[in-house]
């Protein structure tokens, strides 16, 4: 059972580090995006409808509670509060990686509480692509059953694997495993990064394998390189974490790349307000997910969490009002200004591989 | 009469806050615009003619005294001084929102003083688009009659409505009300933002509704988000003000967008010298309006206000001289350099909605 | 004689201010230009030939001693040293404005010393375009005769005129006067700015009037707005100087614009080393002129001035060596990288007046 | 023998200065290059193959030990350690300039130790292009024989020559000498800059002369202008070093230019981690060379040097893993984002000489 304990106690470490230390790195790019003001919006702010659909689910808001925790008894309370919020506001919610509980069913309680508290919510199970490959569809099924999930997110986090002491260093067979799951599984499969973003090329592979949606998990929010550096005891690993602090595709850049592949997307990574959700939707995302900004209030109290969510909704509504968006669909047609490094990266994207060609057009 | 009192005393609050506290936010973009020097201008600086026309009015200068105040007895003296300056220099002038006096005719004195002191000036009445919708053309007529105005500015300020405690949250019917006014009204209608700017799309709607001119009211000068944050007592509203401090289209960007719609424009929002007026005109504006830079001297004395206006004219004349512009019409043909964030925003404007398309051209 | 005394003593004031106070403003753009390194230059640094031709004169270096002073007895020593350097190194040299001596022939000594000490040098007489207009070709002839000059520079400095107490505010008739001079004069006429640069449009007018060369006098070096602000006693003039501190076309931008007009050019304004001369030549200038960097050593001693000139030549030679330029003509074929604000301004230049058109191409 | 001693003791000075003082200047551009993350890399990090080929040699890594030292007895120990590392990790290695030992065979020991300690490594002899020209192919042959080298690097360092007291100021005949060598020599010839980079034009000349590869030696790493300034005793030379501190083509820019010429390249100059090697390869380099980052540990101990090399490999492997590159060849097909000044310089490259044409396209 040593391995279980390791997986499980790591979960507790993560929450503590995230609560107490600065775990963000880089810039997701939202400061480089501006929504175009609509001076005569012809809509009623109080009538703005945040309802939206995602993979057949009907949600009351495009705010998605991103996958965070579960797997250690100490995380149960946090998951309970997140679940109650998901139920109260009818939000989609992802649970954290269920690996610990799949390895050791005694740890399921911190996951099952989620469905207990959120009987009607759209829930996403969560499994690492490495575990999927190693344990097969059966684990995916058990993960979904554990919380009666409507969908499953297969997370990819190879930067973290590469730099953490317990990391798995091989991704061989992952894409094949994903394809297998997508073909045979009863629920829609979402592929989700956890802080390094998804490129245009990878998005094409993911949709090609049959996934129904992509969760960006872009660079510029919570940084696993930073968290692993804080956890690292071996100096080479601390140093690796440091060196890869700036690795990844910023959320906005990734979102623009993934959008070109055409499928549904959840923007996560560095969204810090309802305005960032509005910007994400204007750039083509279907939902805007947040982890860290919800984690802290969820560790404090139900009231703190509700206040945070309502604040996010308040900002989102004002942004929708001022862009004349009565619905989420309207918001997705809003024009944006894109500037700065984000624009340079997006414009750097579109040429062939050869850098001379790319920049000179011959 | 509770409501009247609220509207009226808010006016006094605003002046006080603007006088004592820093109420500007962001960057209107004038630092990113440079006028092209004309080394052999072939004109006489002392013969430069600042005269211009705006909506059939003959003005002695393109400096416009932007709408500021009225509605509370304490604002009368300020309006008197502004009006005397408008008369002396034959400037166009807008009064502040007349709502308080329309709600409570006892408060008319702080508006009627303007026409008394400026019998020949081009005056713009001022009414919020919400009040227009709610009270109809009759209020617009009363507003114009109150000061025997040559035109009426219908202001839009939905950011402020959204974040102020007394704010009206619905803009439904506003465009229709505007169209109705434009069709039936005897005087030209100007639509005016108050700090968030007008987009190309909105400009088309405004001219399409029959308005005769647009007053940009762009981002980068006096910030109502900032003023409302300073006034706010409820923490959520203070926090909303904070979050929307950076909302809006910078004046220069908005001006370039509105100019493409083709009608007459007043550039306001962050103009801080006669050189900024010159830049606005070179970018296509018809007048350059200022509020805050005139408010402070107007709260001090008639002499202070005259000195400020003459300083603005002195700078404007030098800028016209050094671009070889004998007249305002010449100035409007002067070439400019546009750089920096302003240029990026302008160049970000022109593609279709899809951000991938927008930036990649496919 | 009051007027003479004013003109003359102003000259002494200028030298003092330039010696003791920071009189530079802005950025000429040389930091945004990089010469392309030639790793295998195939030339001998010690054989590099700085000789060049300018308007039929044979010069031993493209370093030009820009117009500075004369007209007050205290300036005689400075002019003597500059002239001896011009003779020793066979450099072209411009004297300062000869107005004071034309108004009062007793003051000629500080100019005639130049030809006495530099019997073989290429000397440029110097007269303001306002004086040319007001006093006609006769003054130009007297100016040339005074120092037996090979050419005359007609300087334009309308920013300074506009903001100095004694300034002339009319430029009417200047272009006509210039055309008249160019038609009838025996010597080539150079038109020279003094810190605000020449635009493409103005360059076309100047060459169209018959001038043989343009001296850029661009923005980013010695700033007359700054000097006049330091001299100003009236607060409005000090304030005007302040407001126009950032007025003008940076030297590099102006050079690129003037080059498109096709004639010979001297780059002046903010050149601060031999590398800046090399960059100017690579961008198409024929000579690189310096005022302030030569003024300070010239006020100290002949040795200091020689050391400065030799340092400039040393840098220029190394830059030529490392770009593989055996001659000044080779240097003018060297490729450059242009970046930053300078590039943005150059690229902002090329469209039609309408800013929407200019940036959007429709 | 005075000259030998000078050459030789200079070598010792260089090591000391590099060890104790900050000798880097500028920015090589790697911060402006980002590798595109591949979220599902489909490879096993532990199976990543760093093996590569360069000029028929089979190397175990694209890390190249750039030419540094030899020629003074005190440098022997450093060369021994570098050689042992080259042997242990099967890296390519260049020795420092062999001039001192060619001038004075008694000094050969610090070079011959390299082959003794690295009997199987790919070694590059090193000779200045000036020495090649002055002493002919015979010196090149002796240099190669001295260490039984597989190839010879002919270094060019004319910036250093221009600003160092002992510098040779003529490059006449160098290209011819290079052509002669390439035609007659039994081993492949590499041309190598030492800190100022190679332009597109020079690359074409070099490959045209018959060289088999180019070592970029770009700007932004160890700066010889800085080292020479620190060594300089004559104030004019210190001042020259200072003035040319910013001279040179940044490594990334140079690499993009040289790549367009088509031949094999070693990227050196400012590479500071395995990630920079990965970026260099993604931009088209064949090997990534480092000098300074290896010099310091090599001066300390064999262990320190091994730890440094393993750290570089660890970073390189993670970067390859996260771009899905199982081999060096894969890495060379990875897409990059290029932004900032580096992108501006690259995009500034491609037009004809005329700056107006270059930027305006007419
Ligand atoms: C404490 C914590 C635990 C997380 N655990 C998981 C996880 O188990 N599975 C997963 O897919 N993502 C996990 N994430 C990643 C988030 O879902 C999200 O993609 C990422 O944190 C970026 O969003 P943020 O910047 O709003 O935090 C976790 C994030 C945090 C902060
Ligand atoms: C104290 C104050 C009161 C204002 N009141 C009004 C108003 O009642 N109606 C209106 O249309 N604009 C009003 N404005 C907005 C101004 O007309 C102007 O559009 C805006 O302040 C931007 O210009 P500035 O940066 O020069 O201040 C007011 C501005 C100030 C500073
Ligand atoms: C003290 C001083 C006096 C000057 N006087 C004249 C002048 O009389 N006529 C003129 O054409 N330019 C005059 N100039 C301008 C210079 O010729 C030159 O165009 C300008 O200073 C920019 O070069 P710099 O940055 O190297 O100083 C003067 C400059 C200085 C510093
Ligand atoms: C101490 C030292 C000595 C060097 N000596 C030579 C040399 O003799 N021959 C040569 O071609 N390059 C020499 N170089 C240049 C390096 O090979 C390399 O091109 C340059 O230092 C840039 O790489 P870096 O930034 O990683 O140091 C030397 C560099 C250093 C630091």
TrEMBL record, chains A, B, C, D:
Protein family membership: Belongs to the IPP isomerase type 2 family.
Write out the residues that bind substrate.
10-11, 97-99, 160
Q: Which UniProt keywords apply?
A: Cytoplasm, Flavoprotein, FMN, Isomerase, Isoprene biosynthesis, Magnesium, Metal-binding, NADP
UniProt gene name: fni
Q: Which cofactor does it need?
A: FMN; NADPH; Mg(2+)
Record GO terms (molecular function): FMN binding; isopentenyl-diphosphate delta-isomerase activity; magnesium ion binding; NADPH binding; oxidoreductase activity
Specify which residues bind Mg(2+) according to the UniProt entry for this protein.
161
Q: Which HAMAP family match?
A: Idi_2
Chain ranges of the FMN-dependent dehydrogenase domain: 174-334
Report the subcellular localization.
Answer: Cytoplasm
Its recorded reaction(s) are:
isopentenyl diphosphate = dimethylallyl diphosphate
- Record-given protein name: Isopentenyl-diphosphate delta-isomerase
Q: What does this protein do?
A: Involved in the biosynthesis of isoprenoids. Catalyzes the 1,3-allylic rearrangement of the homoallylic substrate isopentenyl (IPP) to its allylic isomer, dimethylallyl diphosphate (DMAPP).
* InterPro entries documented for this protein: Aldolase_TIM (IPR013785), FMN-dep_DH (IPR000262), IPdP_isomerase (IPR011179)
Quaternary data = Homooctamer. Dimer of tetramers.
Q: What EC numbers are recorded for this enzyme? A: 5.3.3.2
Q: Which SUPFAM superfamilies match?
A: FMN-linked oxidoreductases
Q: Give the residues annotated as coiled coil.
A: none
Q: Which residues cross the membrane?
A: none
Chief location category: cytoplasm
